[in-house]
Amino acid sequence: MIRSALDDSSPIRLSVVSGSAHVTTHTWRANRLPTLLLLAALSAVGGSSARAQNTGRPAKSVLMVQLQQALNLNEHGDRQGATNSVLHILEQHPDFEPAIKLKGMLLEEAGRTSEAAAVYQEALKLAPNDADLLLELGKYKLNAGQKEEALKLLQHCVRILPGDGDAQYYLAQAYHLNGQNDLALRAIRLSLKAEPDNPSVWQKYGELLCINEDCDAGLKWLLKAQHADATLPRIDYDIALTDSKLMDLAGAAQYGARAVASQPNDVPALQLLATTDVKLAKWQEARDAFKRILTFKPDDVDSLLGLGHCELELKNYPAAADKLQLVLQVAPKQILAHYYLSRAFAGMGRTADAEHEAALHQLMMEQMTFVRSAESERSESAITAQASALLAAHREQAALQLYRNHFKSTAATLADAYVFIGKLYLILGNKEDGIRSLHHALEIQPTVRGAHTYQGILALKLGDLSGAENEFQAELANDPNYQTAIAEMGEVRYHQGRYSEAAEQLAKSRIMTPELLYMLCDSYFHTGKVSDADLTAETVAAYGRSNPEIMKDLIDLLLHNGQTDLAQRLSANLAGK
Length: 577
Description:
By secondary structure, this protein is mainly alpha-helical. 75% of the residues lie in helices and 1% in strands.
């Protein structure tokens, strides 16, 4: 009789977009708590007759009857009656866990998921090893985007029920959202072992295989799931995405169109379809898709850029220019927009504007291509906060060990570690320990990259141009192509008033730092290279837009040098951001 309450023919499936993945529930299974409520009740009251006199709890038959009555009311559509019944039980016995669980289930069925989660949390305090509560809370946390908490709950659940297909299914998703894709694949395989005939599991297995770079195998499972149940939510999207990764553009377009037809407001599906149509040079179809996306996300830069590109290829040059200029107002770092805008202006016969945009595109591409730093090369940013905290707590050796552990599979040396520590000390304002660490790095390895440069930057900050120059020259003697040192040497020359040399060094460094680009712009003005100065001013605006002080200085610089039109245009773009 209880089983009939569980065989709900209406599928329950939640979908939450998170990165490239969607959190999903089984289509074959509704909330499984009712199947176990009476068993839990039996466990809770079984063997408790001897305690009934002391606790005031009625004999187990009374609680069982009351709980079953509540379940029967809900089964027959009387949710309010079921709720009243369970509340009555809890008024008399507030710690009766099966009734608390039923209350949570009723709230969940009513769409009050956050309240249901709070109730499940309350029940879990009474029964911390209840696998079903762990699963329900894990699912809630997963859909709420609380992936770390979800992972802990679901890991606990599978320790209790390692062969449970539901628990492994959701655990796989939690692992994936936490970036642990190998563990995600292992979990979904265990779910598949427990539920070998479940198309939802097939679908998730296919998705995870593709994420783990086995798209051929993934596609087979996705197609198998689709053939078994074509109503699986997002199955067409998953197949289209996999076809796209396999460069089967025709397949991606076919299934992408089906995904959009079934869910016309699904923005990720529209984005995938639009991107595929662009690759197939189906400009009209792509334009229509981008326009639909923009009705939902009016400021989506990628869609604005895509729409501008489509208008360009359809030879609607004024429309293309309008959209591309809007892109650059919203996102001035969109280098490709300058290239498309150059082509649009050329199509409109605006030759000078076309040449200007082409030159700006080339300049920004060179900066993007050549700029690099020790931090980006070595991924230091991943440990910077933790290392800084250790140094602030006077735990230098722990910070050094953190660096060495993080880069143990790379060519990084102990000297590199001391350079990193020295840099962080200087950032923290600890000049003495910063210089000590940098000196020690040079004692260990005289050619270590960065030690002279960071000492030179400190000297610049203190106004010691001669000391800064000596440090940067020493760095460049070890590595003539070290871009940070080249750029900083340009700054020294700028402060020395040697503008031609400053421009040469700063341009050579391909620097993207707004402050140094401002110096390059000013140096070009000083040497009479107005066209180069104008182009550089636009790159300053692109990379320094969020810095009000640098933007004010830039506008003042342009006005001082008679570039009123450019100053007004950049000011207008800034005001409209």
